[in-house]
Design goal:
This protein is mostly beta strands. The chain is 9% helix and 47% strand. The chain contains 6 helices and 31 strands. Strand 7 and strand 8 form a beta hairpin. The longest helix is centred in the N-terminal third of the chain and has 7 residues. The protein starts with 12 loop residues before the first strand and ends in a 5-residue tail after the last strand.
């Protein structure tokens, strides 16, 4: 087998010391590893000659850090052995040779981890993968992997283990730190200026944490209006390990004391956000399609859902979406009614929506309550119909219809005018209770015979009652 040009032993001339700690331009430093002969070599060489020497030395690599290494020491060959020269003019080069030490050095590009757990402690060693097998033979309790994979993340110390043929290996010990042992999570917070930091950890560790950092207080940032997460920091606490502290700002809280609305319309949907007026500018800068105003101003009144938009520096803003719902698209209004006992409910809506409404509520019938004698309005209810939105249903009763079969009259005289109502005798008592100045009888009985007009009075539970007004006829004075 041909000996490598840089590292072979044939024709070597021993030098007086290291030649290549620094190179003079145009020469730069190169390295090469010869595993069979157990050496790593460094030399200074003109880059123009790289192609020539690469033919004879396949491992020849520039030591400028582009590969992650700048010297033989980085590769695990730190011990200077000798400086040699080989070749004949014009192909001749001087090389510094380096050996491994008696201790194992970790090759960065080829590092493996071994761990061992004993009780509440985990020990881990990171070493060159070439030596993993020998280490496990020496200590059969070692396993492939890391302590962190098993929840041991808090460094508690270091030990040195002597392994035959490998030398001293450093074993780092870890504990689980602030693991959940009390089965309860508690929060600690700290406010500095316009930022709040919060840590969520096992309740058993709040005491040590507060001792370590006396400015920590029980509670959360949200309780003080800090709801917009802005980042995360890591705090190292003795005996507990690393604790994550999340930072929050107040975001788009009501600082101006006045709320403003922004809207955006896309096709048949309008989205609206209500936020502090001082934040409308940043929000519109973030989303240039936002406009001052509300969806209702443009006929979008039926709420269809909610979305959350994250705006830099403001945080999460809720956008409510609306549709136009059951607006008059056909240009014609239709009525649907439903009778239950002594009450009739009626909805007046666009004729194009009566079909979907009747599908949603199969007891609805075309027509009005008045057609069935329900004329006294008693209230209103709102019914939410899918795809149509909220529909108003007006409720009616039959009011003061002639249920007793007999009509009675009530009158009231004020100055030169008499008012008289003719209604079912069953309703005279409720009417007189509502208006205590009413009396049984007629205006004609008191000389008021000239009709002068009509007024309508609304009486609870009875409905609208017509009152006819009379005056006395012209008398000879």
């Amino acid at each position: 087998m041909k000996a490598p040009l840089l590292l072979g032993v044939a024709g070597l001339v021993k030098g007086d010391g290291e030649c290549c700690l620094a190179c003079e331009a145009p020469a730069v430093r190169y390295y090469s590893v010869d595993e069979p002969h157990g050496h790593c070599g460094e030399s200074c060489m003109d880059p123009h000659n790289f192609g020539i020497f690469k033919i004879f030395e396949s491992n020849l690599t520039i030591a400028d850090g582009s590969t992650g290494f700048t010297s033989c020491a980085d590769l695990g060959w730190p011990s200077y052995r000798e400086t040699v020269s080989h070749g004949v003019w014009p192909i001749r080069i001087t090389v510094d040779l380096y050996d491994r030490t008696e201790h194992t050095r970790v090759a960065v590009a080829d590092s493996c981890s071994l761990y061992e757990i004993q009780g509440d402690t985990c020990g881990q060693s990171d070493l060159d993968c070439l030596y993993k097998g020998q280490a496990k033979l020496f200590r059969r309790t070692l396993n492939d992997g890391t302590c962190a994979e098993h929840g041991f993340t808090v460094k508690t110390g270091e030990n040195t283990i002597s392994v035959p043929f490998l030398g001293d290996i450093t074993a780092t010990s870890y504990s689980k730190g602030a693991a959940l042992q009390s089965t309860g999570t508690c929060s600690l917070y700290e406010i500095q200026g316009d930022t709040c930091g919060q840590s969520d950890l096992d309740c058993a560790y709040t005491g040590p944490a507060k001792t370590f950092r006396r400015s920590l207080i029980d509670g959360t940032c949200a309780e003080h209006g800090f709801t917009v997460q802005t980042g995360e920091d890591t705090i190292s606490v003795p005996f507990l390990g690393d604790i994550t502290a999340k930072t929050y700002s107040k975001g788009a809280v009501l600082e101006s004391g006045e709320a403003c609305s922004l809207y955006e319309i896309k096709d048949d949907t309008c989205g609206q956000s209500d936020l502090d007026c001082s934040f409308t500018g940043p929000a519109k800068t973030f989303r240039r399609s936002l406009i001052d105003g509300t969806c209702a101003e443009h006929g979008f009144t039926v709420k269809t859902g909610e979305q959350t938009i994250s705006v830099p520096f403001l945080g999460d803003i809720t956008a409510t979406t609306y549709s136009k719902g059951a607006v008059l698209k056909s240009g014609e209004a239709c009525s649907l009614y439903e009778i239950k006992d002594d009450t009739c409910g009626q909805s007046d809506l666009d004729c194009s929506f009566t079909g979907p409404a009747k599908t949603f509520r199969r007891s609805l019938i075309d027509g009005t309550c008045a057609e069935h004698g329900f004329t006294v309005k008693t209230g209103e209810q709102t019914i939410s119909v899918p795809f149509l939105g909220d529909i108003t249903a007006t409720t009616y009763s039959k009011g003061a219809v002639l249920e007793s079969g007999e009509s009675c009259s009530l009158y009231e005289i004020q100055d030169d005018t008499c008012g008289q109502s003719d209604l079912d005798c069953a309703y005279t008592s409720p009417a007189k209770t509502f208006r205590r100045t009413l009396n049984d009888g007629t205006c004609a009985e008191h000389g008021f015979t000239v009709k002068t007009g009509e007024t309508t009075m609304t009486v609870p539970f009875i409905g609208d009652i017509v009152a006819t007004t009379y005056s006395k006829s012209s008398m000879l004075v």
